[in-house]
UniProtKB/TrEMBL annotation:
It comes from Lentzea indica. Residues 73-159 form the RCK C-terminal domain. PANTHER family: K(+)_H(+) ANTIPORTER SUBUNIT KHTT. InterPro entries: AAE_transporter, KhtT, KhtT-like_N, RCK_C, RCK_C_sf. This is Cation:proton antiporter regulatory subunit. Gene3D superfamilies: Regulator of K+ conductance, C-terminal domain. Pfam families: KhtT_N, TrkA_C. It comes from the Bacteria.
Length: 159
């Protein structure tokens, strides 16, 4: 399926696709973190109608239901419009001193300024993990921050 991505300066990103019923659907990922799901008129391709809005928490729940691993890509896309901000993915190696330890044990945010915003574990996503979340070997951490901050988290997790 082809997804068209459109940058909306000052607003966020809009993703558009045509579903199997030949209906054009749009999802606006706002800078505020909210999402809007819209559909388009059959007669006027520029006329969009908001179907509903999702808070960040609701969007995370929908993402978990529909395809949890895609959450990392969404963060990466949202960081495109913020200069100096990046998204990265770090896999927890089995030999890490932080494997089977709580996330808070890493002190990653304090030491690097970068935030671990999700943990992808197989097909599951733990969005906004708490400091008590145990990191398991093979977990993929979704990190938002500067390049240096993300590399700092990588060094911590791989130690």
């Amino acid at each position: 399926m082809d997804v068209n991505e459109v940058l909306l300066p000052g607003v966020g990103l809009r993703y558009e696709f045509t579903n199997s019923d030949r209906k054009r659907i749009g999802i606006v990922a706002r800078r505020s973190g909210d999402f809007e799901v819209i559909d388009y008129s059959d007669t006027d391709p520029d006329e969009g109608r908001r179907l509903f809005r999702l808070t960040p928490e609701e969007a995370d729940t929908v993402a978990e239901i529909l395809g949890a691993p895609r959450i990392a890509q969404r963060f990466a896309d949202l960081t495109k419009e913020v200069p100096g901000l990046s998204a990265g993915q770090i896999t927890v190696p089995a030999i890490s001193s932080h494997a089977n330890q709580p996330l808070g044990h890493t002190r990653a945010r304090t030491l690097t300024g970068a935030s671990i915003v999700a943990v992808v574990r197989g097909e599951d996503v733990i969005a906004s993990p708490t400091p008590d979340e145990l990191l398991r070997p093979g977990d993929v951490l979704v990190v938002i921050g500067t390049h240096d901050g993300i590399n700092g988290v990588r060094a911590i997790i791989e130690s």
